[in-house]
Amino acid sequence: MTRILFILCVGPLLSQEPPQTIALRKLVGETPRLPMKLTEFALRPPLPLEMVSSTAVTRDGLICILQRGLKADPIIIAKPDGTVVRSWGKGMYTIPHSIRIDPEGNLWTIDAGDSTIRKFTLLGKQLLRTSVELPAKPKGEFCGTTDIAFARDGNFLVSDGYQNTRVVEFTRDGKRVREWGTAGTGPGQLNTPHGIAIAQDGTVYVADRENGRIQRFTRQGRYLGEWNHAGKTFSLKLAQGALWIGTQPRNVPNGAEGWLMKLDLKTGKVLGLLESFGHSIEVAPDGTVLTGRRPGSLLVFRP
Fold first, then answer.
1. What is the CATH number that goes with domain 16-302?
2. Which residues contact 232 (CB under 8 A, 6 or more apart)?
3. Which pTM does this prediction carry?
């Protein structure tokens, strides 16, 4: 009888979620849902997509998709109505991971398998190809870079997130400037930096994924602070004076559930959210929010 009572009393405690997840779920329950309509982006003609890893929107509204399937090109450019304009990149990538548009309108991609950084025109002409060295002892397919962000002076910063756990800065023509970051859980240390963004004032935001936080740094890597209330953050996007993120609880499998959140840029307060996991997140000039969904689709949230 004593043993039965012990199991009945202690069992619920053993199955209880970690404190950070409990706090996150409470925060989610108290946060208003953003008034946006969800649709699934349909390409015309239809293409067999697999794992839309990342998406970006140009200034004139073209939607740029980076996907990992072998039956279609990795890079697909489409009009807002889904009409495919062009595609390219077959055989070029190991693990297509991130796609971004720079302030000049060029398209950049990041490969998480071989750490290659590529810059293209929207017509598919390659303008630059550079890379960050892989770890000395790769522990699996995912062992390279994860994301890219552009500074006002034309330099770009890359989150070298799988194994190397650092940020590397380059000049606009691909020459290495500096690197910073070490592996660990302390202030300023990193464990799978999966996303990166640079604010107008130069603050660098890093999605420190496996540490379950967003850290803030100077361009030189000086630690400025962190937010650890928003879960296991995968992606970042600065738009409309806010920081948008894709996140999930730390204790569930990747992609099992999650939210797209809009954060106050200065305080980190969650201003609103959408129900969706966000390996990537993009916010178009008109406020439309986009994210990829497994196994192979693109979700669009329109104001």
1. 2.120.10.30
2. 209, 210, 212, 247, 248, 249, 250
3. 0.94
